[in-house]
Backbone:
């Protein structure tokens, strides 16, 4: 006997949920696109809608880290800043040629990232971890712990120096190759070259943030909940202070005066498609086996470890992917106004994504996107709604609304409810063979 | 290979490392002192400790509140700001003296914090912890921007008029003003008072019991809600006093002045092991000293101070994950 694939519940649905989602999203895209074209949407609100999309991307990253993986991070704005400044350096190079070769920043940045990966790989090839462990175990019989710690530290330093030297060589070599390859971009027609460089810049900004997140996360994620939050808060303050003094390293970043001359290439189309792709990535990640590992750590880390999940790797991965999202969002933000100032990446602004995900509901992608839009509308809407002479009241009313929402719905607007397509998918539709009782009985 | 031979070899290596480190440190100190002179160093440490006392008073409020309700009270730095402004108005408009002004600040802050606790945190005690954290951020925004309105405190910098004449003594080149002495005296007496309240009175016992285990404390007849309110009030009292002292030491006040000292005091509390009173005190002194020493001795230190301060925090975390005096709870299954 065979159970039919089409159960009654499934048969009722006329349109698959992904198609419905895509249809609504595309309709929204088209409406905003044409509303701006024919002038229903003034440039100010057009920017606000784009800003809402950018916030949603960044907040989705934090939701992966905090909502799904349960790691209380207050440093998300730091990754946002890395993505923003990283991609801005690349596109500004193409636009105003600050490095002298127009694609120098791009090739150096990609080569540098690969170089860091090479360092990590070289450290693994040199068996840095096992050597340290065996050395510590071997010395334990001869020396006091702190003395053997000193020797282990010395060996680690020597081996890391070797790994770093390999990485620097790799970076330099790759840079020369990449610079030659990217020269081809310059020969493309200008519009295409822009598009290509912008896309690569966004991705590079994202991977840069992801790499930093991974490197910072691996040691810090051992800390327990609140301590991790404080350490990441410290990280974001460090990034902020670093950005204020960035002109001492790269003059064109201008430090505390604010970086200018970034081409304003972000459009609604870029934001929309970036958001759509990121939601898609997030959905597939969360509902994959990696995603289930990530969620299980939120529920109970010890139980997850007992089930054979590599908690440290899993947390670092979630942190890196979340950082990637923030980096892409930062890149889009940088090219929205064409101006970056460190105060945008202040740790106080860092609470915005946290507020958004708590508003929307921790662990709800739908809620995050919805809350980002509402958040942007609230913050900017107050600017419009408040009468003359009461502009200062904007940030007096905003926290009151914040308080009221938190007091009335502490679990967030949507809790953990998801829009259909974003829910965990049902098992694939297939015929399920059921052992035939009569034949079994006959065999018996 | 002979065992004792290996042992001796390792000994020699360790000693070589020790000697290298020692020479490095000595050379470093000699260079620093040669460049700036020993007087400068002593002066910096002294200034650092002065700032540390102020941080300590704020840090204690953070640590007590965290200890009892596990909440990072981001509004605490703004209570500190309100304390500074209260005394500012008492001194400039009503010509009050130092002692009544600081007492008024402490009382106003205590009431303010009780109100904040009742309105914003108490209803959320059973909700997920993050909800209360978000309201804390909200309260912080509200205090900053509400007091920045024209008819409240205004958004401008105000020059704080010190309630007493500044006297500076020159002891072998090191400058000590009576500000330092007042700060140290007030801070130490408040800290001793807090120690007394927490460890020698019934109220303190109730606070410690509530921090340990709320349901059991309630079963023992402790009024948990009142105890929590009282903890907030006590923390705010110290923050109010700290606000006055900070304004006396750095006489420029505005409504956003609480953010950075608040954050640093909080980091100090965490550095010492959050929830631990003496830890917060040590952490704060350390924090203040690092703060001033970085500014004095690192080139372009005044611009990089926050970076270095937080780097120290993260390094301490990596070595001691729960702060210097904190104990890591081992989770039992």
Residues:
């Amino acid at each position: 006997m065979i159970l039919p694939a089409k159960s009654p519940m499934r048969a009722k649905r006329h349109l698959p949920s992904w198609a419905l989602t895509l249809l609504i999203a595309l309709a929204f895209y088209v409406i905003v696109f044409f509303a701006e074209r024919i002038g229903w949407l003034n440039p100010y609100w057009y920017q606000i809608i784009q800003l809402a999309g950018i916030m949603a991307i960044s907040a989705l990253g934090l939701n992966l880290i905090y909502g799904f993986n349960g790691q209380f991070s207050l440093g998300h704005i730091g990754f946002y800043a890395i993505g923003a400044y990283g991609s801005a350096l690349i596109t500004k190079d193409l636009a105003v040629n600050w490095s002298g070769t127009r694609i120098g920043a791009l090739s150096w940045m990609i080569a540098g990232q690969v170089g860091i990966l090479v360092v990590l790989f070289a450290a693994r090839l040199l068996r840095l971890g096992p050597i340290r462990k065996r050395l510590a175990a071997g010395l334990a019989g001869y020396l006091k712990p702190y003395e053997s710690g000193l020797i282990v530290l010395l060996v680690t330093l020597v081996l890391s120096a070797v790994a770093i030297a390999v990485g620097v060589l790799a970076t330099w070599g790759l840079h020369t190759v990449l610079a030659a390859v990217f020269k081809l971009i310059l020969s493309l027609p200008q519009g295409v070259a822009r598009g290509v460089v912008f896309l690569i810049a966004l991705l590079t900004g994202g991977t840069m943030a992801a790499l930093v997140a991974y490197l910072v996360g691996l040691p810090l994620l051992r800390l327990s909940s609140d301590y991790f939050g404080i350490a990441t808060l410290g990280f974001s303050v460090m990034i902020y202070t670093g950005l204020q003094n960035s002109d001492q390293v790269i003059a064109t970043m201008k430090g505390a005066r604010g970086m200018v001359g970034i081409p304003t290439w972000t459009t609604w189309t870029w934001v929309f498609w970036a958001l759509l792709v990121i939601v898609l990535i997030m959905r597939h990640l969360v509902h994959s086996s990696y995603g289930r590992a990530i969620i299980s750590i939120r529920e109970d880390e010890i139980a997850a470890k007992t089930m054979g999940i590599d908690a440290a790797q899993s947390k670092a991965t979630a942190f890196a992917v979340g950082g990637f999202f923030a980096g892409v969002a930062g890149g889009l933000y940088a090219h929205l106004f064409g101006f970056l100032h460190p105060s945008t990446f202040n740790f106080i602004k860092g609470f915005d994504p946290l507020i958004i995900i708590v508003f929307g509901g921790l662990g709800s992608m739908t809620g995050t996107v919805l809350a980002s839009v509402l958040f942007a509308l609230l913050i900017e809407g107050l600017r419009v709604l408040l009468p003359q002479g009461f502009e200062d009241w904007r940030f007096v009313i905003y926290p009151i609304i914040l308080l009221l929402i938190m007091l009335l719905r502490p679990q967030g607007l949507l809790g953990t409810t998801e829009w259909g397509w974003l829910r965990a998918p049902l098992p694939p539709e297939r015929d399920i063979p059921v052992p035939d009782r009569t034949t079994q009985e006959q065999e018996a | 290979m002979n065992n004792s031979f290996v042992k001796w070899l390792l000994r020699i290596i360790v000693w070589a490392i020790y000697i290298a480190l020692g020479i490095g440190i000595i050379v470093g100190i000699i260079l620093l002192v040669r460049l700036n002179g020993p007087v400068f160093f002593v002066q910096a440490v002294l200034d650092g400790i002065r700032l540390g006392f102020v941080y300590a008073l704020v840090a204690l409020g953070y640590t007590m509140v965290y200890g009892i309700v596990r909440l990072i009270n981001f509004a605490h730095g703004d209570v500190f700001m309100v304390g500074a402004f209260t005394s500012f108005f008492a001194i400039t408009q009503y010509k009050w003296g130092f002692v009544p002004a600081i007492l008024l600040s402490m009382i106003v802050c205590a009431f303010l914090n009780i109100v904040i606790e009742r309105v914003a945190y108490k209803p959320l005690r059973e909700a997920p912890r993050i909800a209360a954290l978000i309201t804390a951020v909200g309260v912080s925004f509200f205090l900053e921007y509400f007091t920045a309105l024209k008819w409240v405190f205004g958004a401008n910098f105000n020059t704080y008029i010190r309630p007493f004449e500044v006297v500076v003594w020159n002891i072998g080149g090191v400058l000590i003003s009576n500000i330092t002495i007042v700060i140290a005296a007030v801070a130490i007496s408040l800290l001793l008072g807090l120690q007394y309240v927490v460890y020698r009175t019934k109220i303190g016992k109730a606070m410690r019991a509530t921090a340990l285990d709320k349901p059991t404390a309630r079963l023992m007849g402790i009024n948990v809600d009142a105890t929590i309110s009282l903890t907030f009030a006590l923390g705010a009292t110290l923050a109010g006093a700290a606000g006055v002292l900070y304004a006396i030491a750095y006489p420029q006040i505005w409504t956003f002045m609480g953010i950075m000292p608040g954050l640093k005091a909080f980091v100090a509390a965490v550095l010492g092991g959050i929830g631990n009173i003496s830890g917060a005190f040590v952490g704060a002194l350390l924090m203040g000293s690092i703060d001033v020493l970085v500014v004095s001795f690192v080139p372009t230190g005044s611009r990089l101070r926050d970076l270095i301060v937080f780097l120290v925090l993260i390094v301490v975390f990596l070595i001691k994950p729960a702060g210097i005096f904190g104990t890591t709870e081992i989770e039992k299954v």
User: Anything to note?
Assistant: Chain B has one domain: 38-293. The first strand of chain B starts at residue 158 and ends at 159. The mean pLDDT of chain B is 88.
